[in-house]
Amino acid sequence: MEIIVKGEGKKKFKPDQIELNYTFTVREKEYEKVVDLGIKSVDSYLKLLEEMGFAKSQVKTIQFRVEEEKKYNEKTKKYDFIGYRYIQSSKFKFEYNLEKLQEIIINSSKLNYVSYKINFTLQDEKRAQDELLTIAYEDAKKQAETISKVAGLKLIKCLKTSFEAFDGSFISPSRFNEAYLCMDKRTIGEDLGNIFIPEDISVERNIYCIFLAE
Question: How far is the C-alpha of 140 from the C-alpha of 112, rounded, in Å?
Fold first, then answer.
């Protein structure tokens, strides 16, 4: 007898990594000026991180472009050229450390043309996915054992397993308010960990199994 079951794997993980997604946006009428200011703003950011003990190699560029900006003119019914826009997005990850995050926030308030969001994530997502699948498989096996017992049979082995590609994310639902970027050390406080603790990351994975019972 073949038994087909769906196993569910659920677990909460504590974030062990902080991810900062920076976006540098500069607007100027002249192409050369917007590029120059854009490069200088990014360079200032990289130097700031180096001063705090990080390496440039930890910063990964996600996108980079310089484009014309136009605005629709209601009178002429045409788009008027208003200048250029420099956009560069970068991702920066480091081991979970709220004291270091606090230092970055304080120093980032000195930068121009930059905005960012902070995510609390996991360093080893593959290990977490494997753990979830293991939990899901054990759930499926337990169901199969119950079914086979009710049917007066003995569970022999698992014939086949399958699961869909993971489409979730290992990101805490907590979001750090960007308003903190404008605060100085006295406003944020001496210990960020006392006022901000990110939520655990809740993730689920399913597995489908075919067991043989005789």
Answer: 54
